[in-house]
Automatic annotation (TrEMBL):
This is Trehalase. GO terms for molecular function: Glc3Man9GlcNAc2 oligosaccharide glucosidase activity. The lineage of its organism: Bacteria, Pseudomonadati, Bacteroidota, Flavobacteriia, Flavobacteriales. InterPro entries: 6-hairpin_glycosidase_sf, 6hp_glycosidase-like_sf, Glycoside_hydrolase_63, MGH1-like_GH. SUPFAM superfamilies: Six-hairpin glycosidases. It holds the Pfam family MGH1-like_GH. PANTHER family: MANNOSYL-OLIGOSACCHARIDE GLUCOSIDASE. GO terms for biological process: oligosaccharide metabolic process; protein N-linked glycosylation. Residues 30-426 form the Mannosylglycerate hydrolase MGH1-like glycoside hydrolase domain. Belongs to the glycosyl hydrolase 63 family. It comes from the Bacteria. The keyword Hydrolase applies. Keywords: Glycosidase, Hydrolase.
C-alpha cells in the first residue's frame, strides 16, 4: 500500500511537470508556475529525479526581475482557464519586469533559499548539487536584498506583503480584518476557479473584489514599491512570510560557507538575521494568546488571531526554547485533541473557523511539513511524529488533495479531501516526509 502510494506521488508530480520546465500545482485549477509551490515541488523531485528538481528551480529563478523581485505566478502559456491571468496583472507595467516571461506583479513566501539547502541535503551527488547551487544562489541573495530594500519601510528587519495572495494563505480569516477597512468597487469578471472546485470551498465574489482592487492600485502605480507602501490598503507583516525569509537567510549563510568566499554576503545575511529575529520576537509575539500574530502596518495594529502561520517560526528557529514550549502548548490546546488531525490552518475555537473552506480551517500539507520540521528543531519528537502521521494518514485515506478536513468525525458528511486533486505539493512533501525520520 505504502509502495503504491509512493509511486502514485511520483506519478502526480511527473504528470504535472510541463514541457517548459516547470510544474503546475494542479491540472485545470492552477495551470501555471507558482513560486512557493515550485520550491516544495523541487524538494519532492530531488528524491527521485534530481534533474527535474534543478530545472524547476532554474525556471523559477529565471523569471526574476531586474530589481531582484521574483513573481508569484509565472504565466508560461496563454492558458485562459485561470482568472486573473497575465492580461489582468500586466507585469510589463514595471520598468524592470522580466522581458522573457509575463507574470503577476506580486510575490509569494521566500522559499528558494531553504529549498536549495534541502536539495543539497537530499542529493546523493553533493558536488554536482553544489555546482548547481553555485550557479543559482546569487539570484536568491538578490531576491532577499530586494525584500530588505523595498519591503521594510521602517527598517525594522520585518518585510511587508501588500496582497493576501502574497501570503500564500489567501483566504485566511486574518484578512477579514483588513477587508473591514476597505470598500472596493464591484468588479465584473468571470471566475474560473469555481468551474473546477465547489464554490463552497473557495473565496466569495466579494472577497475577489478586494483582491482585484488592491492589484488595480498597484497597477495604477506601475507596481512601484514606494507607491504601494504609501497607498495600498493592505500592508501586513506576516509571521509565515517573515519566518520563511529568516529560514532562507540561514540557509544562504550555510550554503555560502560551504561554497567558500562570499564573506561580504555572509556578513550582510548575519546582520539581517540579528535584526529580523529580534524584531520578530518583539513585535509579532502576543503574550496573551501565546502565539505569533500578523501585524497590520497600514492601520498600525496587531491582528490577534491564531493560525497555523503562528507556529511557523519554529521552522526558522526564531523562538527561544521557553517560548517554543508556550507555542506548542497553544497549538495542542486549541488545534490538537483526539478528534482532530493536526494542524488546522485556523484556530478551531474561533467563530471564523471553517473546516471545509480553503485557508479558513482545513489542513494543508505544506504547512504540516514546515511544522513537522520546526517541532523537530526543538525536540518535540512526539508532536512532530503526530504531525507527520496525520499528514500521511490524510493522504492515504483521501488522496493527494489540495487541503483536508481536520475533523476526524464529519458526522453525516462524507469525509473527503478538498480543492484540487493530484496536487503537486501534497505529493512532493509526502515523498519528503516518508523519507524523513
Ligand atoms: C492558491 O492561490 C491562488 C492564487 O495565488 C488561487 O487561489 O488562485 C493558494 O493556496 C496559494 O498558496 C498557492 O500557491 C496557489 C497554487 O497552489 O493556490
Amino acid at each position: 500500500m505504502k509502495q503504491e502510494l509512493y509511486k502514485k506521488a511520483i506519478a502526480v508530480l511527473d504528470a504535472n511537470f510541463q514541457d517548459g520546465g516547470f510544474t503546475i500545482p494542479s491540472a485545470g485549477l492552477y495551470p501555471f508556475q507558482w513560486k512557493w509551490d515550485s520550491g516544495f515541488i523541487a524538494i519532492g523531485f530531488a528524491h527521485y529525479d534530481v534533474e527535474k528538481a534543478k530545472t524547476e528551480m532554474r525556471t523559477l529563478l529565471d523569471s526574476q526581475w531586474g530589481n531582484g523581485f521574483i513573481p508569484h505566478i509565472v504565466f508560461h502559456t496563454d492558458n485562459d482557464s485561470y482568472f486573473p491571468g497575465a492580461d489582468f496583472h500586466q507585469s510589463e507595467l514595471h520598468p524592470l519586469s522580466s522581458k522573457k516571461y509575463r507574470s503577476t506583479g506580486m510575490t509569494q513566501p521566500p522559499v528558494s533559499g531553504f529549498v536549495l539547502q534541502e536539495m543539497h541535503r537530499i542529493a546523493e551527488d553533493k558536488n554536482d548539487m553544489l555546482n548547481f547551487i553555485k550557479e543559482e544562489i546569487d539570484k536568491v541573495f538578490d531576491n532577499h536584498v530586494y525584500f530588505y530594500e523595498n519591503r521594510d519601510p521602517k527598517d525594522e528587519g520585518l518585510v511587508y506583503i501588500y496582497h493576501n495572495w502574497e501570503s500564500g494563505t489567501d483566504n485566511s480569516p486574518v484578512w477579514d480584518d483588513i477587508w473591514d477597512t476597505m470598500n472596493p468597487p464591484e468588479y465584473n469578471f468571470v471566475r474560473k476557479d469555481t468551474t473546477h472546485v465547489d464554490a463552497s470551498q473557495r473565496p466569495s465574489k466579494r472577497e475577489y473584489d478586494h483582491y482585484l482592487y488592491i492589484i488595480d492600485i498597484a497597477k495604477q502605480n506601475n507596481y512601484d514599491d514606494g507607491k504601494i507602501a504609501e497607498l495600498s490598503p493592505f500592508l501586513v507583516q506576516d509571521p509565515l512570510f517573515n519566518a520563511m525569509l529568516i529560514k532562507s537567510n540561514q540557509a544562504l549563510i550555510e550554503l555560502y560557507e560551504l561554497i567558500g568566499g562570499n564573506e561580504d554576503k555572509i556578513k550582510t545575511l548575519l546582520q539581517w538575521q540579528a535584526k529580523s529575529i529580534a524584531s520578530f520576537n518583539e513585535k509579532l509575539f502576543d503574550v496573551e494568546l501565546g502565539a505569533y500574530v500578523h501585524y497590520d502596518l497600514r492601520n498600525e495594529k496587531a491582528i490577534r488571531h491564531i493560525t497555523s502561520s503562528s507556529f511557523s517560526p519554529l521552522f526558522a528557529n526564531i523562538p527561544s526554547p521557553e517560548r517554543a514550549k508556550v507555542l506548542v502548548n497553544t497549538m495542542m490546546d486549541k488545534f490538537g485533541g483526539d478528534d482532530r488531525y493536526l494542524c488546522a490552518s485556523f484556530d478551531p475555537t474561533n467563530d471564523r473557523f471553517n473546516p471545509r473552506k480553503y485557508w479558513r480551517g482545513p489542513v494543508w500539507i505544506n504547512m504540516n511539513w514546515m511544522l513537522f520540521l520546526g517541532l523537530k528543531n526543538y525536540d518535540f519528537s512526539n508532536v512532530a511524529e503526530q504531525m507527520k502521521k496525520d499528514s500521511i494518514e490524510l493522504i492515504e485515506r483521501y488522496g493527494f488533495y489540495e487541503y483536508f478536513d481536520c475533523r476526524k468525525d464529519t458526522g453525516n458528511e462524507k469525509p473527503t479531501g478538498y480543492g484540487g486533486n493530484n496536487f503537486s505539493w501534497s505529493a512532493a512533501l509526502y515523498i519528503d516526509m516518508v523519507n524523513t525520520d
